[in-house]
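Running this now, will post back.
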Amino acid sequence: MSAGAARARAVADAVLYEGYLLYPYRASSRKNQSRWQFGVLGPEGAGDAGVGEDSRLAAQCLLTTGKDAAITLTVRLLQLQHRVVEDREGNAVPELTVGSDSWITWDEAVEREFAVGPVPLAGTTQAVRIPGGVEVEELTDADGYPAGRLVRTRLSVDGELVVSIEQDGGYRRLTIEVRNVGAAATDKDDAIARSLIGVHVIVEAEGAQFVSLLDPPPDAVDAVARCTQHRCFPVLAGPPGDESLLLISPIILYDHPEIAEQSEGPLFDSTEIDEILTLRVMTMTDEEKAQARATDARAAQIIDRCEGMTPEAMQQLHGVLRDPHLDRPRLVPEIPDGVDWWDPLADNAVAPESDAVSVQGVLVSKGSTVRLHPSRRADAQDLFFDGKLARVTSVHEDVDGQAHVGVVIEDDPAADLHEWYGRYLYFAPDEIEPLNRPE
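Update: finished.
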């Protein structure tokens, strides 16, 4: 698996389990009575009958294609699995405790994946059939004697993947639809048991590139506007610069999404912030934690991970402060390491008369000669200075990290007077052209 595909799959896993299990992870919690929230495709007619969700999702996207272009589609979803707890006599019971472990009757889920391709860019329809089944897990006590069992039941799920392609100017429009084609549901329990849950599609292109629907090139804007979406949205899923991967998600994402490196494991709780949720888990009583562990194996893993978290891991979870302006021209010298910009000590490092900013590889500071090219501000007066030579009087940086260059116009008869009492014109580094190096 390529690094881009692994990255896309990590995000897809988060989509798959989004809302699977909600804090405080106990079955008795009201919000865990209806956990299946995203990408649910119910049997045909379930939505109209009020017993389930709409039976389809569909997405359209654009591609630029070359010769022998092909795509691989991977449909991923959860299949509901109903777990019943039975005692040693085979009677269904609401809860069973064996030693320090407990189990309750609960709806679990099983990951399912269906891949098609690589296939040429042409229309195709593929069945997505997932069989039902019954599995029994025997439970024994500390002495090895039968103590009960867990009976897991799955109903069959019948779906369909439909792909079509059409030309739209210089692009090709790809339409991908996933449907639940199962028989009508008898009630809500039957509907969710035969639903496709958390449905999303990963599409990998060979010999073709996807077009961003969020930031399309100018000549694709009209074609993008003609793309329609139903209960999902496609985004570029590879790392920046990789346009060969697409994620069709029931949750709206941005292009090139990624999992935060500080997140050590899934918490499932509908995009909750990891640090806050971890702290909440730590406040649960031992009884509440035991109830959560009895609900689901994934809940037990969350409880154990939070209980075993070290101070260092918690500090890492707190996040990382990143400079959003790394690609912008920076002042020289900069604030010393270990000193925050709001610290009064930082003022000692600021000297507008001697500070410099790098523009086109040239350090611009007081005394530099530059040519002005106003472009950022809608000020008619600035247009009179376009192409004018100017002398730099100072360089500043605001608290947002943006640099500002103070200048006076060289052929202005009052230039020396303006410089004497500090009446400067200010321009951004990309609005000036350095003509010489400062002495």
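The first strand starts at residue 56 and ends at 87. More later if anyone needs it.
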